[in-house]
Amino acid sequence: xxxxxxxxxxxxTIIFFLTSFIGMLFxxxxxFYIEPTNATSKSYTHHFALIAExxxxxxxxxxxxxxxxxxxxxxxxxxxxxxxxxxxxxxLRLFDRMIAAKVxxxxxxxxxxxRFVDLVHKATERDIPIITxxxxxxxxxxxxxxxxxxxxxxxxxxxxxxxxxxxxQFVGIITGRFEAINQQERMAGFQSAIASEPRVQIVAKExxxxxxxxxxxxxxxxxxxxxxxxxxxxxSALDGxxxxxxxxxxxxxxxxxxxxxxxxxETLNLIRKNEINATIEQYxxxxxxxxxxxxxxxxxxxxxxxxIFTDTGVIEKQDLSKIHGESQ
Length: 328
Ligand code: BGC
Prior knowledge:
Blueprint: H1 2-32, E1 46-51, H2 58-73, E2 76-81, H3 88-100, E3 105-109, H4 114-125, E4 130-133, E5 144-147, H5 150-164, E6 169-175, H6 181-194, E7 200-207, H7 212-225, E8 231-234, H8 239-250, E9 257-261, H9 265-272, E10 278-281, H10 284-298, E11 307-309, E12 313-316
Parallel strand pairs: 1-2, 1-3, 3-4, 4-5, 5-11, 6-7, 6-8, 8-9, 9-10
Antiparallel strand pairs: 10-12
Bound molecules: beta-D-glucopyranose (BGC).
């Protein structure tokens, strides 16, 4: 009897022990499970800001990609900010906010306003180095500019028309924004290239607001008012695609020599289909990448070189295979 009671006692104790042990393992795991460390708890060497012209613009997204790659390679926290739609006031407000946030450096598209120059001055007084990207403001105290030589890029567009056309060319220009310095420089470069070629003349200029739909409407209006236009030039990244649509709406069968800007996939596609004749190539990914590296160098010392031009070129149908990842 005593033996039976003892066996029962031991059995109950073992069952109780096992239940508690399993329970402890299970609930202990739940209670003390720690999330693997993620990016937010990573420590960074510097905090930089990149201020773009417009958030969702594909061209600026390429700049962001390049900048983020360089940032990741160098343990930099890079913040990408921009107005939703191109707007100088908003861009300047973001610029001011980033200065107030005491970031370690700012990469910003230059805009032609006294306020921009003042903000660069304010940042410099607070030891925050500023780099202009894509568009320079030479009169500001920015430490460096990284981007296309926009005057030269405009000249390339002019030379392309001269080399590839015959007879009178009445040119209609679609520009991103009249007030943008890079657009003004491209326009000046274009004018200088055609100055000695009287058969090529600009007859009209319209603004696209750097959107495809804007370029379509601008082209429509331009061709309606100037039916003799037989060459179109777009000076910003989405103008080429918009110009082709505008032309299709108003004069689908008209012979037109079309020069676009940038190598976004849709533009290249239209070159492949012979709807755009040439485009001026910029390197936004490199601009982003290089600007972060320049800002890193600036944390240690001032630069010798303060104008860092990325490459520029002309792409026509026969050049498509030269573009990374492209085949004709
Ligand atoms: C210009 C940028 C502009 C973009 C618009 C590019 O060609 O360099 O300044 O924001 O076009 O899509």
